[in-house]
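hi!! sorry for the late reply, been swamped w classes. u asked for the two structures so here they r. pasted raw, havent cleaned anything up. first the sequence of the first protein and right below it the tokens
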Amino acid sequence: MPELPEVETYARGLQPLIGRRFLGARALWLRSVPTGPDLLGPRIAGQVVIDVARRGKYIVFTLSDDVLLVHLKMTGELVVAPAAAPPDPHARVVFDLDAGEELRFHDPRKFGRVYLVADPAQVTGALGPEPLADDFTPQAFAARLAGRRGRLKSLLLDQTFVAGVGNIYADEALHRARLHPLRPADSLTPDEQVRLYDAIRAVLRQGIANRGTNLDWAYTQGTNQDVLRVFHRHGQPCLTCGTLIERMTVGQRGTHFCPQCQPLLRLEVAG
């Protein structure tokens, strides 16, 4: 599933749509539009794109009246195509644009979602802070960690804790911070909290600079896979110490770590 760097790359790539007008829309897979597939076309018709940005893992189109949010999930893509081009068999929602074009939401596995709302908080209100925002300081991060007892890996994947971090960048941040994925959040020292804060921001910035991580056909724009240090590298030597990277499951998610660089002490497990 695309994470913060991939979605940021998508949003930036769609910014040429700023100033364009929607003429209508058609939901070809009704479940793709939880906010009302029948209302989507009439409501969006005539609205102009004011901005295209990102919130967490959502692409956010600010329109002249409403806000359009798209969550790509595992296989979603947004493609601008001529209206006369052959139909896309995996298009779940098609938006009619001015100048004879369409914005097609291509989603073979049908997990992606499209929302048209007056207030984006209806969709994103439960999300945690943006980890690259200026006001997300080390002190703010430490305050969010206070009282948290969950495992670090699971906590980083919790979108209500911090928005946009997923499996790839959680593993990479924990390795950079030299913290085991099973460490309880409340066992971190102040120095370790700062290390993790710095690591999260560093791997996300690196991912954005590299236009995201391309690991399968669903997202093919980036080169960040070339600099991953642990994710999907199980059985290969750690680039820091040479120890073989290991893989385990945490919260039903494949998790990659170096047992030498990220040791777990019994005292830390016990809290």
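now the second protein. again sequence first, tokens right under
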Amino acid sequence: MILSDEVVVITGVGPGLGAKLAARAAAEGAKVVMAARSTDVMDRVGKEVAEAGGHAVGVACDVRRPEDVQRVVATAVERFGTVTGLVNSAFGHPGFADLVDTPEKAVRRSMDIIVHGALAMTRAVVPHMKAAGRGSIVNIGTMATRRPARGEAGYALTKAAMSCASKYLAVELGGHGIRVNEATPGWMDGPGVRLYLSMTAAQRGITEQQVYDEIAADLALGRIPTDEACTGPILFLLSRYASEVTGAVLDVNGGGYMPL
């Protein structure tokens, strides 16, 4: 198990990537602390992990609230002794619109969740990682920063800021044995994409499979990666197999983007 002896905090645990990631991290030996505003998914995942013999606990948390962030980390330390891994995947989309038409309040909310929330969690876990002599932080990016698509500007703006922060944190924390990387998914075949397929098919009068095939045709692997399949690269970055990897961006998108 590649995450044995690791204590991993995962933010933004919802029904898609977050839930799959928490379950797989626990299956790989990690003691997992889940954080999200809603506890329904975390309760289900925690029960499934416990039944499989693993360890996972959920904590209600809005990453914009300092007291919530501190409660998440305090729970990790009280239950498992320390924190050695962090996945910042808390999500806040400002809505699909041109940037000049996106309400300032919506952009600020997204920035507060994605950037300032990630920084708050990072600040809270770093002292424990320093004490442990190691740590891995994985920030979840988006293909919207790689391939601009109209309507995604407000969201991409906040994720681009997080990406920049990742590189600076990698430089600043590397001397303490703390690695900081970014995993950048694109289309992920989970609840969100399934809703998109259904809505688009209805609007265009075609089948969901036809919409799927159009998307998949633009990906080198010819398929949309599932939520669960996208967890593997994130677990790799968390693990000691990636001990020499920091400041990197790992594209997890089926070949939808290939930087030179």
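hope this helps!! also noticed smth abt the second:
Strands lie at 7-11, 31-36, 55-60, 85-88, 135-140, 178-185, 249-252.
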